[in-house]
Structure formats: structure tokens, C-alpha cells
Amino acid sequence: MKVLITGSGGFVGSHLVDEFLRRGYTVSVIVRKETTLRWVNPKTVTMWKGSYDDASFLQNAVQNQDIIVHSAGVLASSNYEGFYKGNVEVTKNLLDAVTIANPTLQRFVHISSLAVALPSPLLEDPTNEHVIVQEPLTKYGKSKLEAEKVVHTFMEKIPISIVRPPAIYGPRDEAIYDYFRLLSEGFIAPIMGFDKKRMSLIHINDLVRGIYELCQSEKTISQTYYLTSKVYYTWNDIIKATKVALQKRILIPIPLPHFAILFNGYISTFFGRIRKKPPVFDREKAKNFTQRHWICSHKKALYDFQFEQQITLQTGIQETLDWYKNNGWL
What is the total count of domains within the chain? Predict the structure, then answer.
């Protein structure tokens, strides 16, 4: 079996490569000029080097593949146009290539995000796949929703599944690395706001396993899934697990007021524009951090293809911190 994976230079994409190689697949990856394959051994994959704007290149890359997992995307941009080009146009170009060069493709998996939805108003009412999304909170979320709309227009031609992960963590993750580094270096643990926030999380190994398992089920064609934890976590849960993993006696939770989080987000965005490099933490990420319940339901994936979280928060954070230490990040 052959699989083509986009975004292999990133956190999720590199783990997808590992997962499908482990399952015995022949793996190909699309590599753009600016892509750095830090965690993928070029000897284990077939590399297609080119641009997502080049139709003939994409047609050559997608032909003869059994599965395509589309993980590539733009996570940070100074404007909506950057998000739209990287998340919407790239998706459409890839699907156009499939319809021309690989009409018998067995599965196309589109990696979307919980960001397409809104925070849940109540703890007892997590968002689910049946909630009709109107207007996401951030530009990133809007672009991912627009990409999903594009995907839906191809569902009569291509067997497609959409995956919406919540916050993802694990080895190689750079997005949450600075927070863990802060906890490892001191005795103070910042918490986002004074209210008790809860969030859905997924360890990267659970996520890529779930994507593989989704591809094995006919029931998941033309469906959307939240691959997520059954448990909703608080910042205190994360801090407690980190304290145990770091073997620290003292780690004091300190709530940060929302205005301070938003102010830091605006400052980071401002300096990012000066440097002409979008920061990972910007005003949109700050807006996300001030929401109370970023939670989603695991039930549809459990019912349709028996997907469940296997890695506990404690085990996942221990594995993540061990990887950071072993690779000189901490």
C-alpha cells in the first residue's frame, strides 16, 4: 500500500510518516523548496520536490497513491491572505490533481482543526460534528473552515474523511515547548485567567494512530471526526502532570489576567510584523487562550471506528518532556 503525506516537515506530518512506515506502507512526501525534513529520514521515503501551485507536479505526485493524508498548512500568518493561500488554495489544488491523475484513490484524509468551531458555552455541551459552524473565532479557524467547504465539494468524486484535532502535544512539538521550558526552569506556573478553563487534548501518537485506523474503515468515508481525549483537562491538570514528570517539589500556579494575555499577544504580533516573521503566539492565539471551554466530543469516532484515547496526560507529558531533554531542548 502506498501513502502520500503532505506537511512532513512539521510536527504532525513527521509523526504521520513514522506511523505509516511502522504499518508497512510505502511512504511518499511532498517537499517544498523551504521545507526542512528534520525528523524524516530521506532514505525511508520517496520525496516529491515542487510547488503546490504547479498542477503537473501535483498530478505526478498523487498518481498511483492509495491514500493521501493532507497535513500541510499555515499555522501563523500576518494576514488572512496568507492563511487562505496556505490552507484553502493548497487544498483545492491537491484535490484537483487527484480528480485528474488518481480518480481511483482509496482515501483522502484532510487534517482540519477544532479552531473551525467556537468554544463550547457549557462544560456539559462539548462541540460535536453535528454543530453547524458559522463564524470561527480566528483567521486561522476561518481559513480551515473554508478549506473544509472546498473538501466537501469533492466528496462525490473522492472518498474523503475530515479530521479535526483539538490541541495536540507530544515529542517534536514547538508550539507548547516554551511553556514546558518555563515550568522546568522555575517554580511558577502561569495559568490562563482566573476562571477554571477546560480543554480537549490529544497526544500526537494517539492522533496519528487514529488517522491510520480511520483509513481502514469504509464507514468513515464522507465523514468528519474529532479525534480527541475523552477527558477535559484544566491548566492545573497539566501543571500537576508536569510537576511529576520533572520531579519538582514546588510548582506554584499563578493565574494571568486576560488583559495581560491579550496585551502580550498584541505586542508579539507587532514585533512579528516588524521582523516580517509571524510569531507562534500572536493576538489570535491570545484570544484562544482566554476562552473558557475548548472542548469537543469523542463519541462519534468511538462509535464509528472504535477510536479512543490510549495515552494518559501523565504518560504523554512524561514522554514529551523526556524527548525534550534527550534532544537538548530542556
Answer: 1
